[in-house]
Amino acid sequence: MIGYKEIVSLLPGPARKILTEKLFMQKVKSRPKWNPEVRSSVAQELAEDTSIFLKYCGKPENFWQLKTTVESEFLSEYLD
Fold first, then answer.
1. Nearest Cα to 11, choosing from 34, 22, 71, 1?
2. What pTM does this model have?
């Protein structure tokens, strides 16, 4: 059975790019709104894995500043 990769590999570069962009990519128009409690919970759940990943990539543990982002979004949403 011939799959997507085999078909696309037969196309010239520009046609391959157009086909891929039109069929399989969508531009993000706006950032999703997170419920502060859910965002905080997700950040806490991912904290250890995130730390390990950043260390593996040679980045500082606070590279993404997830806790600061969660707190500042929570405050801005409820204090503005």
1. 22
2. 0.45
Domain range annotation of the chain: 1-28, 31-80
DSSP labels for 27-55?
Answer: ---SPPPPPHHHHHHHHHHHHHHHHHHHH
Residue type, 58: G
What gap in Å lies between CA 73 and CA 38, rounded to an integer?
Answer: 12
pLDDT in tens, 16-59: 888 778 777 778 888 888 888 888 888 889 889 998 999 999 99
- Three-state DSSP class for 64? coil
